[in-house]
Amino acid sequence: MARLADYFVLVAFGPHPRGSGEGQGQILQRFPEKDWEDNPFPQGIELFCQPSGWQLCPERNPPTFFVAVLTDINSERHYCACLTFWEPVEPMQEAACSEDTAEREEAVDEGGQVGLSPTAPAPAGQLFAPKTLVLVSRLDHAEVFRNSLGLIYAIHVEGLNVCLENVVGNLLTCTVPLAGGSQRTISLGAGDRQVIQTPLADSLPVSRCSVALLFRQLGITNVLSLFCAALTEHKVLFLSRSYQRLSDACRGLLALLFPLRYSFTYVPILPAQLLEVLSTPTPFIIGVHAAFQAETQELLDVIVADLDGGTVTVPECVHIPPLPEPLQSQTHSVLSMVLDPELELADLAFPPPTTSTSSLKMQDKELRAVFLRLFAQLLQGYRWCLHVVRVHPEPVIRFHKAAFLGQRGLLEDDFLMKVLEGMAFAGFVSERGVPYRPTDLFDELVAHEVARMRADENHPQRVLRHVQELAEQLYKNENPYPAVAMHKVQRPGEASHLRRAPRPFPRLDEGTVQWIVDQAAAKMQGAPPAVKAERRTTVPSGPPMTAILERCGGLQANSARRLEVVRNCISYVFEGKMLEAKKLLPAVLRALKGRAARRCLAQELHLHVQQNRAVLDHQQFDFVVRMMNCCLQDCTSLDEHGIAAALLPLVTAFCRKLSPGVTQFAYSCVQEHVVWSTPQFWEAMFYGDVQTHIRALYLEPAEDRAPSQEVGEAPSQEDERSALDVASEQRRLWPTMSREKQQELVQKEESTVFSQAIHYANRMSYLLLPLDSSKSRLLRERAGLGDLESASNSLVTNSMAGSVAESYDTESGFEDAETCDVAGAVVRFINRFVDKVCTESGVTSDHLKGLHVMVPDIVQMHIETLEAVHRESKRLPPIQKPKLLRPRLLPGEECVLDGLRVCLLPDGREEGAGGSGGGPALLPAEGAVFLTTYRVIFTGMPTDPLVGEQVVVRSFPVAALTKEKRISVQTPVDQLLQDGLQLRSCTFQLLKMAFDEEVGSDSAELFRKQLHKLRYPPDIRGTFAFTLGSAHPPGRPPRTTKDKGPSLRTLSRNLVKNAKKTIGRQYVTRKKYNPPSWEHRGQPPPEDQEDEISVSEELEPSTLTPSSALKPSDRMTMSSLVERACCRDYQRLGLGTLSSSLSRAKSEPFRVSPVNRMYAICRSYPGLLIVPQSVQDNALQRVSRCYRQNRFPVVCWRSGRSKAVLLRSGGLHGKGVVGLFKTQNAPSPGQSQADSSSLEQEKYLQAVVSSMPRYADTSGRNTLSGFSSAHMGSHAPSPRARVTTLSNPMAASASRRTAPRALLPRTALQGSCRPPLPCPGSPAPSLEAGPSQPQVSGALALLGCSPGVSSAGKWGSVRASGRTSGLGTDVGSRLAGRDLLGPPQANGAPSDPGFLRPQRAALYIIGDKAQLKGVRPDPLQQWELVPIEVFEARQVKASFKKLLKACVPGCAAAEPGPPSFLRSLEDSEWLTQIHKLLQVSVLVVELLDSGSSVLVSLEDGWDITTQVVSLVQLLSDPFYRTLEGFRLLVEKEWLSFGHRFSHRGAHTPAGQSSGFTPVFLQFLDCVHQVHLQFPMEFEFSQFYLKFLGYHHVSRRFRTFLLDSDYERIELGLLYEEKGERRGQLACRSVWEYVDRLSKRTPVFYNYMYAPEDTEVLRPYSNVSNLKVWDFYTEETLAEGPPYDWELAQGPPEPPEEERPDGGAPQSRRRVVWPCYDSCPRAQPDAISRLLEELQRLETELGRPPERWKDTWDRVKAAQRLEFRPDGHGTPGSLLMSSVPHHRRSLGVYLQEGPVGSTLSLSLDSDQSSGSTASSSRQAARRSTSTLYSQFQTAESENRSYEGTLYKKGAFMKPWKARWFVLDKTKHQLRYYDHRVDTECKGVIDLAEVEAVAPGTPTMGAPKTVDEKAFFDVKTTRRVYNFCAQDVPSAQQWVDRIQSCLSDA
After folding, report:
1. What residues contact 1784, with CB distance under 8 A and at least 6 apart?
2. Helices 739-768 and 845-874, interaxial angle, to 10°?
3. Fewer CB within 10 Å: C terminus or N terminus of the chain?
4. Is the entire prediction scored with pTM above 0.70?
């Protein structure tokens, strides 16, 4: 029983002592006068009676009632029920307060209880003062208090005849039961009756309707966030104008928190005077009257809930963690079902009749039930994580937070983490952790209903039913007898407060009241003390965690297999099967990422420990330690999965003997983990172990007692009882034990804890003291001990611990300060731990002191033991590391740095390119990195033994290195941080290496320095291409002996001297633009290279005879220049001859000009150039000045069909700001000079135009539109130029809808609307453009479209930003007017070739928008400007960088898979640039094809110009799609025309800053894209492109070094003497290498090659049609990049001598891995395989093997005969039948010819179908020149006849035997040194042969030969003398040559 009310107080208004207007409360009377012993009178009641302050009021307010809550120092709550009424002020008081009425009135808030209506005037002079009746109680019976105080007030107001003293006395002496569901009827002696019901369970809060009201006021989301805020210890403030509402809201929030108790500041109604409490740093739940809202504004960290407005304001700096999903959403939906049952039915078509909603009180309980379920779900299984530390005298329980979070899988959850760390939960554990106590609803729910709640999760109705069941129980708890609640209490009448009260509230007689109270107290003393009868039971624990979490097991689907692997590996280790174990180890280390496998490891290892010790040998020890380290590395500091806990006993059990008396334990090898330095981990471990021992302590006697037990109970069950059950049993027995027995148990427990503390002090010293104390300080700081020094984690810190530790530090007598430092840190750490756990576990202070003394000794002893162990472990033999594998080197490649042991780490590439190919991981691999003069090479073995026998090689040329950065990485094996290096190369290789610990930092640094030195040699001569095969050291040119006679090398030297003189002279006289000399120009180009020149050793005059007009010294220069690739190509194209001006053939429109032979005009151009016939050489000098780098327009190709020419040049010199100033201020001669140069330029362009045959005779008026120049406005910068802008390609939507045939994108026309187009003949209307626009020509007449459509322009864009270019047909076809009539032909084929041809400009100039402004217009409008926006070299560089990152990421992607790869690919914009290039090229091809010539004049003329020009030729001319033609194209356009390979490839220190810019690679990528779309048009394979892509940066060959021919001559590279033969020495030219390799293998040959004669390729260029080149993504780890053929392990045909002769057939089966093997090499295509087989059979038969090419040609010829008897049969072979399908499927459409359709599908290369179907083979024979231009095969080896002949050398030279080859196809006779020689020594062109006649032997001829075997071949240049071996063969030769001549 308890008192209903402790005190009754009367508080009235009193003046403020300091005389301010505010009054203050005065306690008039309190009963009883003296305090109760158990409950002192609470201070400050007067503040809480009027929370808004004591104020007078001008009118009588109705009485108010509310309950305030005060919390005393013992955190007991006192409920103060306050009833306030108003009485008139007595005159004395009034006088005291009148002067401040005005202020007071302002202070009073409108609408509060003490509010004042400003409009109602107060009665003159009358004020009312508040007076409050207060009941103070520790019980919360608000209704009873309201009734009781109401009764007292009613008696006073109504003047009832009842003694107030009696009523108050009865009130104070009334006692009620505390709990247990009893009810009591009380009466205060005024004829009243009240029934008090106590709740059934004391622990459940009583909420009445407060929770339901709270939800109504704030809504679900707001209440949920308040709930989370209160649980996670945030500050919550309620605002309302009603005090009662504030009390209810606070009470409701607290009720929701059950079963947790709120333990912070709780003030439902805070008085105004105490508002500063709101700035307290601790959490709180406080209610404040809304009048003080302004005061709460500046609180930054308080969550404000406005009950009246229904809002919750959370400040920015406060983060309230939400409930973990799915609980958050589930709770939300259940709450909405409870609060709004109509919601579920709202959408029903036929809603059921409205159901009756539950009453507010019931709804309140339902809402609470939802939260009760929520807590049961949150805390399910919590009892399995309790540690019983002590049972007697009082239970001490600790909660293992980490284990709970780990088992629930909620580690990352912020909410639960904060709740578990909070004070409320600590209280929950100490209150509810006790094993033997009364239980309540929550205990039942969390133990027994978890399974039901899980089952109901997805069934809302079942959840609702459960909620209602719980609500019933909660309701019954509050209202056990609902029917009996009969109250009868007198209430004052209506408006009684307005009646004039007869008198103020009387003063009560203290004596009477006191007497009543004393009477009752005396009566109570006689009665026995009311003991609350509690039904205590063992608290049910519920299902264990494992059962709860079974549903999460799906994650470990294949875990059983993994566990099996772990078990097997461990059993192998302990059985000594080390090899087996080693194979499994990587799989085990991978498996140990999973929790189950780590647990399994710990369990398995436990099985191998006997008597706490397991001695292993060294290998076993290493294995066990590695597995333990792997387990621990993923442990967090909390060890939530108990892995570290399971391993802790093992690390002190496994050991190995180092030497007699010295044993090393596993703990010394597993210290590097953060978990060991976490105090919480040690505490949890300690408590867990103590629990085990205490349980054992109480289980032992049970075993002795076993016989006396009841028979049914077996002792085995006894053992299975949990520690909580045991403790519960002990607590039940405790009161029955004798005092001695109790003492004994307490002592036993205490000593158990004490012994464990000693044990743990030892364990901690094991794991915290490092093996090598010299390293110690570093290690400990990393482990975090240092931080723990500063901030002690223990809640209970004993000062004694600190002092002991300090004294130990000072007096320990350690000499070594370093060791002392570590020892001290460890001692302090252990002492803090001991302090905390011993204080919490109730260890006596004596024992604690003893422990503090022991700890330093324990640490010291352990340090001494470790010294010996460390010393001995140093002597162990090092672990056997894998043997270093030496890489295979190229001939001439030397090792610079021998292998540094490294570990090659995975770089994310396998995932990056969209999923790995499966199979075990090849990386990480252990091995070594080698640095040679040519490459960086890694060779090694994978650490995964499943692939251990494979060798991993990754290498790249030193020259390809683009980025090198230091990294520090975790080695995959030991998990230690190691220094590493990441090298990235532009051949798409990446070496991410961690250096082995044996590699010192100086070795690593040396490696970097050497690498840098090799990457950027000071001189180009230092590169591998030069040092290769030369005896002199790199970097120093060889000293040559004085040459006799003017050899080519001296010649080239003189040549350069002369050039320098000329250049010097020229630049002295005219201060013009000086191109940078090559030392400054940049890095050597990325390939070893030498330009091969077929100069025969006899130095015969070449095809183009230099005329006598040249000086004799120039003549030799000329003969060598003529041999260059350019000239060979010009000849083929019929682009003019080299002749003197006197004998110039007027019929030829172009001529070969030697004006640049000394490289005086333009250093970066070749020596011979094609210029219009009419232009004099001296004019060229002037023209060249208008162009950047002096690169004036020259012809580089002519179309055989339309005779249009393609020209290239640099961009025009921009008229810069400086230029403007110069021209303005200079005297007139200067200006005329400037004019003259642009006049020269105009003349030159005119000459080009008139050189074109079809324009030479016309008047020049037949351009696109014949409009007169009068239409042009004067504002246009160039009145007559016709500028056609290529702008943004977003086609106008109107035209897209209405004119599907002509997608017309916008151009530079500024929104002008065009009138209907005139017919092509009439002048087109001019369109005025804004002043800023270049004038747009009337050429729009070209576009025919329906008159109604306003078409917006002319061509698609080639602007750099045009990513989304959605061009329907290609730009070129649009420009060529192709899509104007008829349905558009596929891929831009012309619908009518003759259409609109006459209206075309003769010459289109394609240039940069910015540069074309200065072009003088053509007066006759014969040329037209096409400004386009192109990307610059720096954009290529940036784009390539990103492409490299995308394809070779360097580390695994955050979200691996195709999407992220494609995203980064798109960001690189590489494909956009490819698109742009193809688009421009197709445009040019279209223009050339339609008969207009094109000048490409972009940037400096050596990057994008070269790309476009080369692509145009490749697309237009089938010759360039052969192997020889492509070589010629690259030599001509890229090498001779001066693409800056060295500079772009960053090959010298000068170019280092500019970085790598892969312009050539981009061109190859474009070729690759075309190759993919037209696979049958190219003689070379994709591998050839990759090969060039790799070697143009590798510096293995000299071909791609240096920036121009001029530089190559200067170095003596261009014309090397052929006299000193290098024999079979390494090739210096990439072409030479390709030729040699092609003899052996068809790797460069494309078997699908079946060209069409006139095929002009028009590839699709949209990004969607482009593919990522596999050169960027594929790699071969078996032997590194496959482009150095000698290094490949097994080329498709091994050399003959290696073949197993005869013998048993070997199995050819092998496993092929995508990223390991080169698939083409591992699985050659069918044709290579058959050729290989043929060769093998030939060898077996003893026949000399034929070359593959001969065999291939023979097979093709046979096929031709078989399937083409009449010349147009149907193709029947597999190879041929696949052709038509293939050609169509790749978008290559066949065009209708003029005479019916013919499609030649023959695979033969020297015959192509004629124009009509009936043409026979004979008709297809062409003249030599056409044969030559259509020559298509891959080899230069078309050998119609071959054999040995003796040949007489030039004048005064001897006869020599040579191998001669007669080639019908090329129409030439070639000769070689011997049969297998790959290098042609000379060529006799049969076109020049005049006669073949019998010869006579001359001096030095072979003696033994018959005279008739001699014959002579007479050419236009000289007579060749030959001699065969005998007469028949001579006759044979003569016949063959004759027949060739007659064929032609």
Report:
1. 1790
2. 30
3. N
4. no
